[in-house]
Design goal:
By secondary structure, the chain is of the alpha+beta class. The protein folds into two domains: 128 residues, Copper amine oxidase-like, N-terminal domain (Copper Amine Oxidase, Chain A, domain 1); 107 residues, Immunoglobulin-like (Sandwich), CATH 2.60.40. The strands form four sheets. A nine-stranded mixed β-sheet has the order 15-23-22-19-20-21-18-17-16, with no helix packed on it. It has a five-stranded antiparallel β-sheet with strand order 1-4-5-12-11. A five-stranded antiparallel β-sheet has the order 6-7-8-9-10, with helices on one face. The chain is globular. It starts with a helix and ends with a strand.
């Protein structure tokens, strides 16, 4: 009986200590993170929470982290996600940047850099350190502690037109999205287009392949944004530019290097509406 009482006492003490550790750790984690952060790009406030799964930036250990797709698109960069390597790659404007989840090592044009805070996954979204990403793309970053605001000034060579500024004001008139097969046409805002082929081409590097997407449209010099997903929902993002095809049609072409393990499964197509906001206008199943 005495032995049983001692074991019960030990169990109660052990449970109490576990609870104390859990509460302390949780409190420290919550106390070290602030979500009341505003981000301005060339004077325009970025808006978050406009769509499902669109979390805002937050501060952790004195550094602002932001959803990687939002900031890289604002910096006019194409992005991809390698689920196997748990790595974000951004390319554009003669820059290639690689960041790894949970690692304080990054690469900018193959040069190793050290991060104060690593990229991380929170609530199913990948966040990257805002200052590191912006400054290594040539942007100027300033912090106003009184208003908890980040001000990013883009370099002239990558300054975006008004319609590309994330969170630009305006009312969204979302089109009805229909699932399409390759070769099927979509009509949006006077544009008729289709995407006809998605290919994976071998490269000299066995670790990666070249993703090539082709399509047609009736609008000269038009541009669409593409997000291509694999069956695990990892995706790559790339712009498709309309090029001369023949007298009454133009050809879309988009190319991007992806991991050799990436197999395209479906694709979302985005365009800028009349208010300058980027919206989804089509979905293709492969």
């Amino acid at each position: 009986m005495k032995k049983a009482r001692i074991l019960t006492l030990y169990f109660l003490i052990y449970s109490f200590l576990l609870n104390v550790m859990f509460v302390t750790t949780t409190f420290h984690s919550i106390a070290s993170i602030s979500t009341n952060v505003k981000v301005y790009i060339d004077g325009e406030l970025m808006e978050f929470g406009l769509e499902a799964n669109d979390p805002g930036p937050y501060i952790k250990e004195g550094r602002t982290l932001i959803p990687f797709r939002r900031i890289f698109e604002a910096l006019d960069m194409n992005v991809s996600w390698d689920d196997k390597e748990r790595m974000v790659t951004a390319t554009g404007n003669d820059i290639e940047m690689k960041l790894y989840i949970g690692k304080t090592i990054a690469y900018v044009n193959s040069v190793e850099k050290t991060l104060d805070v690593p990229a991380e996954i929170a609530d199913g979204r990948t966040f990257v350190p805002l200052r590191f990403v912006s400054e290594n793309c040539g942007a100027e970053v300033k912090w106003d502690d009184s208003s908890k605001s980040v001000f990013i000034t883009l370099p002239k060579e990558i300054a975006l037109p008004d319609e590309d500024v994330p969170g630009a004001p305006g009312t969204i008139d979302k089109p009805v999205i229909e699932e399409k097969k390759l070769g099927e046409k979509v009509i949006y805002n006077g544009m008729t287009f289709s995407f006809d082929s998605v290919e994976l081409l071998d490269t000299p590097d066995v670790r990666e392949k070249k993703l090539r997407i082709k399509g047609t449209t009736n609008v000269k010099d038009s541009t669409l944004w593409l997000e291509v997903y694999d069956k695990y929902h990892a995706f790559v993002s790339v712009r498709a530019f309309a090029q001369s095809f023949h007298s009454d049609a133009y050809g879309f072409l988009a190319t991007l290097y992806v991991s050799s393990s990436f197999t395209p499964s479906y694709m979302y197509v985005y365009a800028d509406d009349d208010t300058g906001r980027r919206i989804k206008i089509a979905e293709y199943e492969f």
